Structure formats: structure tokens, C-alpha cells
User: Which sequence fits this backbone?
């Protein structure tokens, strides 16, 4: 499956994306704020592509202008989610490399994934989480119409083996359909 926006192609990850993935995932400002460790080699990035990213509905965020993978977005459904949700709901997760922060690329990608989730997959609701120190993610979710649902204190993060406060947002299919077209 491939999805497109004005500036992006969202497509499955390929082993040939490993150098791009490593370029952005080795930056300490990216992984830890999203809850995962920095990558230490291209080989590790290949392994992440083959295991973690090798799932349905997980996409490389690729710039149309140059074909480079600069981030990741995906929908984890039902029991694959980090939240307790039904099989008719999904959790959107995402990140993007630091040079692309503040350009509106993640909201653009999230909106397209939301459209796909609600129109094609017929999901009933989408969830998103962000850790307490991740203001960028909070802003992206808000721009896309997600509403704060609840906060979980001292939630264990197995990837970094620490405890964090996570704010969890949600949007239903009905709420998404009611958004102004620019926001949806």
C-alpha cells in the first residue's frame, strides 16, 4: 500500500532505506523523546526495518522531492497497540528527522493516515500518545483534531526501561468527519 500527500509518499520500508533511517534515528533528539533508543549503526537500522517496521500499515515518510525516507508513521491496531483498544480502533505513531521539524510534514502525514484509517479501513477511532516532554507531538496531534482523553502516570517504557507520563489523545470517525476540510 502506498499513500500520497502534496509533499510526501507514505510507503512500506525497504532495506535500501537503512542509511536514511540511521541518519535521523541516530540523533538523540529523535528516539528518546518518542520512547525508543538511538540507533547505533546502519546494520541496526536494517534490523529495525526488517522487524519493527515490517508490519501492515507502517510506512516510511518519504519526501517526493528527493525520495529520501525522513520519518515513520503507522497504525497499530487492536492488540498490537500500546493501548487497550478494540480491533476496530488504531493507534497512530510517528516521528520525523530533526531537519524536518516545524515544516508541517507530520501533520500532513497524520491527516492522510487518518483518512485511510477512517475511509478505507473503516476504523471507529484513532488514538495517539505523547510523553510529557514532547510538545512537538502534542501540537501535531492537536492540529489534526485529536482531543486529550486521559493521562497515564508512571507508565513503564520497555524500550528505554524507564517510567514516563503519557498523555493519550483520541479522535472518533464521527469527530473526524466533522472537522473542517483543512484540518481533516
Assistant:
Amino acid at each position: 500500500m502506498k499513500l500520497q500527500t502534496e509533499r510526501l509518499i507514505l510507503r512500506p520500508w525497504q532495506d535500501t532505506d537503512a542509511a536514511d533511517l540511521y541518519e535521523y534515528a541516530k540523533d538523540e533528539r529523535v528516539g528518546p523523546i518518542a520512547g525508543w533508543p538511538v540507533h547505533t549503526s546502519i546494520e541496526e537500522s536494517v534490523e529495525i526495518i526488517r522487524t519493527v517496521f515490517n508490519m501492515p500499515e507502517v510506512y516510511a515518510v518519504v519526501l517526493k522531492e528527493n525520495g529520501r525516507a525522513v520519518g515513520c508513521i503507522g497504525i497499530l491496531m487492536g492488540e498490537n497497540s500500546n493501548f487497550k483498544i478494540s480491533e476496530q480502533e488504531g493507534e497512530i505513531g510517528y516521528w520525523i528527522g530533526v531537519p524536518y521539524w516545524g515544516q508541517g510534514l507530520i501533520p500532513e502525514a497524520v491527516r492522510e493516515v487518518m483518512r485511510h484509517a477512517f475511509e478505507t479501513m473503516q476504523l471507529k477511532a484513532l488514538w495517539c500518545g505523547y510523553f510529557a516532554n514532547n510538545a512537538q507531538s502534542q501540537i501535531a496531534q492537536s492540529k489534526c483534531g485529536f482531543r486529550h482523553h486521559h493521562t497515564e502516570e508512571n507508565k513503564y517504557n520497555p524500550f528505554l526501561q524507564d517510567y514516563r507520563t503519557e498523555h493519550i489523545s483520541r479522535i472518533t470517525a464521527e469527530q473526524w468527519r466533522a472537522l473542517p476540510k483543512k484540518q481533516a
